[in-house]
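Exam revision sheet. Question 4 asks you to relate a sequence to its structure. Input first:
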Amino acid sequence: MGQERKEGFDGLVRLVRGRISLTRNKRLRAALSEGGDPFQRLSEELLAAVVIEWTKDRPDGSPPASAEDLSPRELGSLTNRVARRLERQADEGTRWLAPSGGSPGISTRTKYPR
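Answer key, structure tokens:
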């Protein structure tokens, strides 16, 4: 993602981050803590999750110019989708960690269709 595009989402990321509480959302905290500090992982992965969820239904993909351009309902819906995405990503990541001695993120098992 280009630096200019990333900067365009900074305000939206701040709005979403202000609504996510790892203290209240125990499921998200548990999922993110599997790979280390949940607060650090949230800060690392939040931008990508916000961009993906925001652009999913918007062909132009441009973020709102200001917080006033976003209704509380839209922000709530976006925040919920971002939190669920982060939970799913964290769960999928821990399922594919290699056994000890392997490289993280690479499965040493081959899956064959049954």
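Marking note for examiners. The mean pLDDT is 80.
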